[in-house]
Design a protein that fits this description.
Layout (H helix, E strand, L loop, with lengths): L3 E6 L6 H14 L6 E6 L5 H8 L4 E5 L16 H6 L4 E4 L2 H6 L4 H13 L3 E6 L3 H5 L3 H16 L8 E4 L13 H18 L1 H6 L2 E4 L4 H8 L6 E4 L6 H15 L1
Parallel strand pairs: 1-2, 1-8, 2-3, 3-4, 4-5, 5-6, 6-7, 7-8
The structure holds phosphoenolpyruvate.
């Protein structure tokens, strides 16, 4: 059985007082659960606070990005080692907002993925097609290209211990969730592509779905055989919603 993961992505949201309230409720409602890991990826300035608030709880924490560089003259960057020093266990790379707004290419994302792994973080590699690409019928081509940037250059072993997140761009923050059939088809495609390189790594690889997951639709998505949890944006900012999504992952693994 693959490990289930539910990871919140706060994006550019948070405040010292708001974080304390939100995480107080989250940590009270999210239990430690065998077979599942839960986390929140927060803006960098809050890592020290979040470390203090979540230490010893059933909820881990991480960064929303990771520099491809380890050290040096790279103004504005935050390295994997720095994230690890603040207790992070997760780092998201290749989120569609980084790709489209900040210009992260497949190659840059692959370098960030490698850097996160060097720092022993659980790297979450995000892939996903735009609405235009889906309508043009090139979803698999896009997913293959984004995945291959890591798979072809770093090998399937690089995905051992990492996570993949399928996030159709048209479903992120739009309230429009992929159907369970669309999610399952994309996840099965991604797993199959990894399996061509290494069946063992593919079988063990948790693939998360992201895109307007909420308490109301988490259970049906997580019931799909290749959906191993979720990457959660908006709903991770509401304690009851996030906790209910975590409970849906526990129920699936139970
Ligand atoms: C995300 O930020 O990765 C995401 C999936 O957002 P939302 O859940 O709000 O669609």
């Amino acid at each position: 059985m693959r490990i289930g993961h539910v990871v919140g992505n706060w994006k550019l949201n948070g405040s010292l007082s708001g974080n304390e309230t939100l995480l107080g409720s989250v940590k009270a409602a999210v239990p430690k659960a065998a077979g599942c890991r839960f986390g929140v990826c927060v803006p960098y300035p809050y890592l020290a606070q979040v470390k203090d608030l979540l230490a010893g709880s059933g909820v881990e924490w991480g960064g929303q990005d990771c520099s491809r560089f380890d050290k040096g003259a790279y103004t504005g960057e935050v390295s994997g080692a720095m994230l690890a020093e603040f207790g992070c266990t997760y780092a998201i790379v290749g989120h569609s907002e980084r790709r489209t707004i900040f210009g992260d290419t497949d190659g840059v994302v692959a370098e960030k993925f490698a850097a996160a792994r060097r720092a022993k973080l659980t790297a979450i590699l995000c892939v996903g097609e735009t609405l235009e690409e889906r309508e043009r019928g090139v979803t698999e081509e896009v997913l293959a290209r984004q995945l291959d940037a890591v798979l072809e250059n770093q090998g399937a072993a690089a995905l051992d211990g990492a996570l993949l997140a399928y996030e159709p761009v048209w479903a992120i923050g739009t309230g429009r969730t992929a159907t369970v059939a669309q999610a399952q088809a994309a996840h099965a495609f991604l797993r199959g592509r990894v399996a061509k390189k290494d069946a063992r790594v593919a079988e063990a690889l948790p693939i998360l779905y992201g895109g307007s997951v909420k308490a109301a639709n988490a259970a049906e998505l997580f019931a799909m055989p290749d959906v191993d949890g979720g990457l959660i944006g908006g709903a991770s900012l509401v304690a009851e919603e996030f906790a209910a999504i975590c409970q849906a992952a526990i129920a699936r693994k139970g």
